[in-house]
Amino acid sequence: MAHLSDRETDELLARLRDGDRSAEGELLTRHRPRLRRMITARLDERLASRIDPSDVVQDTMVRACRKLPEYLEGPGFPFYPWLRQIAWDRLVEIHRQHLQATKRTVSQEAPLQLSEASAMQLAQRLASIKTGPTKHLLRRELRARVRSLLAKLADGDREVLVLKHLEELSNSECAAVLGISVEAVKKRYVRALARVRTLMGDDASNQADQI
User: Fold this and answer.
1) What is the DSSP string of the chain?
2) Hey, which end of the chain has fewer CB within 10 Å, N or C?
3) How confident is the model at residue 191 (pLDDT cuts 50, 70, 90)?
């Protein structure tokens, strides 16, 4: 299901402010797929046997229902990024609780690591960005190469690629999540793609030098 447009979200929020409680269920339910996609991408694979992403989504919805009246009084944040932050906070709690023994550091400021499957999915999507030096590479090789190159990006550059390509956030939503302007999001995204292309080209050139 396609996620709600800003206009549709605003209409549902307006109905809620007018006392139409049925709009609450519609608003939250239609954002469930987006939340599940984000949670699945960020949930540590070591927790796969213990934590169901659907349960995290449900926890998020319960918390959102409690906090929604306060949000409606004066939202200073777009709705979906607000809802996503609640899910993010819950994920941080889960990682701290279940991975505490490993002393893994998880903070609300630093991006949660992508799962292995999500990292590969991002690499696959970016691998479709063709440039001259990579046209001869097999698709499987290219996916693996891009996945390796993603680790070389600055955290902010990698995160904007995740938000755009995996979570499918709009520029305005990315701006709210990252705490920067829409123009800064656009510049960071272009820079990140250029960096990926450059690394891909350099990597291909290095391989050619070794032949």
Assistant:
1) -PPPPHHHHHHHHHHHHTT-THHHHHHHHHTHHHHHHHHHHHS-GGGTTT--HHHHHHHHHHHHHHHHHHHHH---S-HHHHHHHHHHHHHHHHHHHHSGGGT----SSSPPPPPHHHHHHHHHHHTTS--GGGTTS-HHHHHHHHHHHHTTS-HHHHHHHHHHHTS---HHHHHHHHTS-HHHHHHHHHHHHHHHHHHHHHHHHHHHHH-
2) C
3) very high
Structural domains of the chain, with CATH: 6-102 (1.10.1740.10), 116-210 (1.10.10.10)
